[in-house]
């Protein structure tokens, strides 16, 4: 089971190849903008899921 997990993980050369391809496609100046947008999206998702959990907890407290 564990051996299958490690076989599915990308190796060092695969990671290097992926980074080089991303640099070629987007260029060095565009990558920080993409990462900033990705971070903002993750932050919004976490806030939305936290708000949803808070609403569920409030509903459970009111019903109790």
Automatic annotation (TrEMBL):
It holds the Pfam family TatA_B_E. It is found in: Cell inner membrane; Cell membrane. One of its GO terms (biological process) is protein transport by the Tat complex. It comes from the Bacteria. Part of the twin-arginine translocation (Tat) system that transports large folded proteins containing a characteristic twin-arginine motif in their signal peptide across membranes. TatA could form the protein-conducting channel of the Tat system. NCBIfam families: tatAE (TIGR01411). Forms a complex with TatC. This is Sec-independent protein translocase protein TatA. It comes from Nonlabens dokdonensis (strain DSM 17205 / KCTC 12402 / DSW-6) (Donghaeana dokdonensis). The gene is tatA.
